[in-house]
Design a protein that fits this description.
- The chain is 38% helix and 26% strand.
- The protein is built from 7 helices and 9 strands.
- The longest helix has 15 residues.
- The radius of gyration is 16 Å and the shape is globular.
- Keywords: Cytoplasm, Methyltransferase, Nucleus, S-adenosyl-L-methionine, Transferase.
- One of its GO terms (biological process) is methylation.
- InterPro entries: Efm4/METTL10, Methyltranfer_dom, SAM-dependent_MTases_sf.
- It comes from Emberiza fucata.
């Protein structure tokens, strides 16, 4: 399950309520969006580029919060997760507490209309939230613009934005984030073959805010 910012009548809260109940029953954290390798890819990039462990990191649409737990296990100390869904934040709080990672900050927040309390960050990470915003049947184009504007507000100048997407190609993402961001790197992702053509089912890019 992803963790986008959808209208209250969407099914995301219901999905996270089910995952919350499952976690309470059997301790299963639920779906890891894009799989564990997507988390490893992000952490490897941060380590390769020697991103300081005290850098402020925002997980946009944190879902079950597992990425933040893995970042904390890797030594990162200044971690914040936000999600539109209160049930997702409840779940991520339980996962955080079970793992004993009390330094992870979690809050209900609509990234398309962020509150004044949401500070600015050195790193912003998105695994599937921009995808979900893009699929919203009510004014998806307008919501993508709001997303890019919010990202410009919460990401520090020269800060890094790591995005993982299954809906958008590299070229499309470059176009979406052309205002205020520049591409630094495309991260390797699994390839698939269909009809003799090889392509990527997942795109992972690193942008830097200008």
């Amino acid at each position: 399950i992803s963790s986008p910012f959808f209208p209250p009548d969407s099914s995301w809260d219901a999905a996270y309520e089910r995952e919350l109940q499952t976690f309470q029953d059997i301790g299963d954290t639920g779906e890891i969006w894009f799989g564990e390798e997507s988390m490893v890819r992000i952490i490897r990039w941060l380590e390769k580029h020697k991103v300081p462990l005290d850098s402020s990191v925002l997980d946009i649409g944190t879902g079950n919060g597992v990425l933040l737990v893995e970042l904390a296990k890797s030594g990162y100390m200044n971690l914040t997760g936000i999600d539109y869904s209160p049930s997702a934040i409840q779940l991520s709080e339980k996962v955080r507490d079970k793992e004993g990672m009390s330094n992870i900050k979690l809050k209900v927040e609509d990234f398309l209309a962020p509150s004044a309390e949401l500070s600015v960050f050195d790193i912003c990470i998105d695994k599937g939230t921009f995808d979900a915003v893009s699929l919203d049947p009510s004014d998806a184009a307008g919501k993508r613009q709001l997303y890019v504007a919010s990202l410009g507000r919460v990401l520090k100048p020269e800060g890094f934005f790591l995005i993982t997407s299954c809906n958008w190609t590299k070229e499309e993402l470059l176009n979406e984030f052309r205002e205020g961001f520049e591409i630094l790197e495309e991260l390797p992702t699994p390839k698939f073959c269909f009809g003799g053509r090889i392509g990527n089912s997942v795109t992972a890019l690193v942008f830097q805010r200008k």
